[in-house]
Amino acid sequence: DTVLTQSPALAVSPGERVSISCRASEGVNSYMHWYQQKPGQQPKLLIYKASNLASGVPARFSGSGSGTDFTLTIDPVEADDTATYFCQQSWNDRTFGGGTKLELK
Amino acid sequence: QVQLQQSGAELVKPGSSVKISCKASGYTFTSYDMHWIKQQPGNGLEWIGWIYPGNGNTKYNQKFNGKATLTADKSSSTAYMQLSSLTSEDSAVYFCARGGYGSYTWFAYWGQGTLVTVSS
């Protein structure tokens, strides 16, 4: 299985820039995707294929990376961005990262 | 618009089975994979497998071989997942999510989730 590793938590102040990383145990080409999940809700697609913004997602969200190292950036962070963010690869079946919980100071 | 409507919460006994559903609308059901994902309380997401309703082909995460069985009913545009020999480890929210067109796709559409609680 392709293991995806994310840092467990981050805390930032509104208006700042935050980068959330995801490292894959093997190359996934550009098939890395990012989701936002709020408590009690289903995940919501933010970024697909590393850097493509999903429909209706604010341009404050962006993605980058290829191979094994990927980053989701939010700039500027808003209060509503408090959530858990998951990366997911689709190059080798499907696996998810453990999630990064974003808290606002 | 694409919608995935899942069945309601289930309380089931250890050792039993449960079958949950995911009714699709707003697109051609037989043209896209349907995936299933598990989320235990406070935990991350775990991919279970997919079914292609067009021909019934399936693929499972090895961890769920023998635990999950995926089926689809083309006449009602509904995907199903049966979980067998339930234990407390199967207590979780289960999501269905539609794949995209072709291989290597992501999940733009999700159901609202079905909570399965395994308890005597």
Strand tally of chain A is 11
What's the average pLDDT of chain A? 97
Radius of gyration of chain B: 14 Å
Low-pLDDT sequence parts of chain B: none
Sketch the topology of chain B as an H/E string, one letter per element. Answer: EEEEEEEEEEE
DSSP helical segment count of chain A: 0
Structural class of chain B: mainly beta
Main beta-sheet annotation of chain A: 7 strands, mixed
- Apparent shape of chain B: globular
Q: How would you describe the oligomerization state of the chains in this entry?
A: heterodimer
Shape of chain A: globular
State which percent range the strand residues of chain B make up: over 45%
Secondary structure: number of strands of chain B: 11
What does the radius of gyration of chain A come to?
13 Å
Q: How would you describe this structure in keywords?
A:
heterodimer, A: 105 residues, mainly beta, 7-stranded mixed β-sheet, 4-stranded antiparallel β-sheet, 11 strands, globular, B: 120 residues
Description of the molecule:
The N and C termini of chain A lie far apart (36 Å). In chain A, strand 7 (61-66) and strand 8 (69-74) form a beta hairpin. Chain A has strands spanning 4-5, 9-12, 18-24, 32-37, 44-48, 52-53, 61-66, 69-74, 83-89, 95-96, 100-104. Helices cover 0% and strands 50% of the residues of chain A. Chain A has no helices and eleven strands. Chain A has 105 residues and is an all-beta fold. Chain B has 120 residues and is mainly beta. Chain B has no helices and eleven strands. The relative contact order of chain B is 0.32. The interface between A and B is medium-sized, with 23 and 19 residues.
